[in-house]
From TrEMBL:
It holds the Pfam family Glyco_hydro_32C. Belongs to the glycosyl hydrolase 32 family. Keywords: Glycosidase, Hydrolase. This is Glycoside hydrolase family 32 protein. Residues 12-312 form the Glycosyl hydrolase family 32 N-terminal domain. It comes from the Bacteria. Residues 334-447 form the Glycosyl hydrolase family 32 C-terminal domain. InterPro entries: ConA-like_dom_sf, Glyco_hydro_32, Glyco_hydro_32_AS, Glyco_hydro_32_C, Glyco_hydro_32_N, Glyco_hydro_beta-prop_sf. The lineage of its organism: Bacteria, Thermotogati, Deinococcota, Deinococci, Deinococcales.
């Protein structure tokens, strides 16, 4: 057996120890990004759910804090948080603005929605004892709340997992909730639905779009869990989809994404970089679970209709150290113990093939290629992943037909590879537990000459 490489991420968030899953309560407030998350303080598999906590001034450098919402009469399942500027909740005192978290209190026979609040910008949280929404159901969870200015009320998207339905509720004060409408079942329904969100984005042309997203498990595009979305309209009561369901991510490891509340001018989200299919067996005993890179989410109006796009947050450029530029085929040596970012652009008129092979001392670990209108990512079986059902395999997505420059943007960390292509229209997020550290990348162009090409490699 090979000695296991160090899989601890260099530029992705993971706590020092133990298990994490979904991001929760994402919030930007007074210069700090708050990242709460499903956390088991006592082990490296799912259980004893609390909200763990990290904060960052820039979405890049994270600091871990003590548990924010400990388990008590129930486990603390997923949910969201808002700044209640007008003190609609009445939790504020002496002019202090409450942060309000809305989460699912989980017991084996009931999931209902509870509030907790903080009057010191998230340092200490107080539980509000009574549930604010109890449908007397075993599966009813993951409230995501936002302020809807046109109707001057809070809106909550919450999921009925077994029914594959998202219910929208409205409230003037975060305490009293009235049902507005039900969305689904529609789209992919091959697994239970989890972690819904309804949000609006404004793109650089000033056009606004509504996005409905929900995760499902199993039934994802390549087995295990996945995430789908619709674009459409929201009138304050009902979301009406104007597109079919599409996948948000064509990799295997992007789940339970939610957006940060309180980021005016842009929409940012991140996800748990994992798949329920094998999350509890990934080869990092003692600490399991990592967050994806934060991404700016927007919608572009393509000739074929509107489409969701994702781009790594621009703050990540602060990590760029040494850069290397080249064009044409190349064989690049990577530095062990460093993160790597690759940016490739080439002439969009060309039906060219680009292929990147990620190689370690023991051989080929992964392939990313654009060929014949398809983006393809291959993860090869490894010594340390052979017990992970569904790890090895190939992920495919249609490459968007866009005029002008084509682009690929990749982030390689110690145990992950994120790929953004076609102006962020196609994304693949994948854990990557290579046999040995990747020390070489071969960049190849096949079939045709690449024109106008420009490649940059940055150490991070
Ligand atoms: C999604 C999920 C949520 C739930 C939480 C429990 O991964 O199953 O539906 O609230 O994780 O940890």
């Amino acid at each position: 057996t090979l000695k296991r490489p160090n899989y601890r991420p260099l530029f992705h968030y993971a706590p020092a120890a133990n298990w994490i899953n979904d991001p929760n309560g994402l919030l930007y407030h007074r210069g700090l990004y708050h990242l709460y998350y499903q956390y088991n303080p006592h082990g490296d598999t799912h259980g004893n759910m609390n909200w763990g906590k990290a904060t960052s001034p820039d979405l890049v450098h994270w600091k871990e804090h003590d548990v924010a919402l400990p388990q008590h009469a129930h486990e603390i399942f997923s949910g969201s948080a808002v700044v209640d500027w007008r003190n609609t909740s009445g939790f504020g005192r002496d002019g202090m603005i409450p942060l309000v978290a809305c989460y699912t209190g989980h017991t084996p026979h009931n999931q209902s929605q509870f509030l907790a609040y903080s009057l010191d910008d998230g340092e200490r949280w107080t539980y509000h004892p009574e549930p604010v929404l109890d449908a007397q159901k075993t599966d009813f969870r993951d409230p995501k709340v936002f302020w809807h200015q046109p109707t001057e009320q809070w809106i909550m998207a919450i999921v009925h997992p077994v029914e594959r339905q998202i219910e929208l509720f409205g409230s003037p004060n975060l305490h009293d909730w009235t049902s507005l409408s039900v969305f689904g079942p529609v789209g992919a329904t091959g697994g239970i639905w989890e972690v819904p969100e309804l949000f609006s984005v404004v793109n650089e042309h000033g056009e606004s779009h509504w996005v409905m997203k929900v995760d499902l498990n199993p039934g994802g595009p390549f087995g295990g869990s996945g995430v789908q979305y619709w674009l459409g309209e929201f009138d304050g009561v009902t979301f009406s989809a104007r597109t079919p369901a599409r996948w948000v991510d064509h990799g295997k490891d992007f789940y339970a994404a939610i957006t940060f509340s309180g980021t005016p001018g842009r929409t940012v989200w991140l996800a748990w970089m994992n798949n329920w299919q094998y999350a509890q067996q990934v080869p990092t005993p003692g600490q399991r679970g990592t967050m994806s890179l934060p991404r700016v989410v927007t919608v572009q109006n393509d000739p074929e209709g509107p489409v969701l796009t994702q781009a790594p947050v621009p703050e990540l450029t602060a990590l760029r150290q040494q850069e290397e530029n080249w064009s044409g085929e190349a064989c690049l040596n990577l530095q062990a113990g460093q993160g790597h970012e690759f940016r490739l652009t080439w002439d969009g008129q060309d039906a060219a093939t680009v292929r990147l092979k990620f190689i370690s001392a023991t051989g080929l670990e992964a392939i990313v290629e654009v060929r014949e209108g398809i983006l393809r990512l291959v993860r090869t079986a490894t010594e340390h992943t052979k017990n992970l059902d569904g790890y090895a395999g190939e992920h495919l997505a249609r490459w968007p037909e866009i005029a002008g420059m084509q682009d690929l943007h990749l982030f390689l960390d110690s145990s992950s590879l994120e790929v953004f292509g076609g102006g962020g229209r196609v994304v693949m997020t994948n854990l990557l537990y290579s046999n040995q550290p990747i020390t070489e990348v071969e960049v190849q162009s096949i079939d045709t000459e690449l024109n106008g090409q420009h490649w940059t490699l940055s150490l991070m």
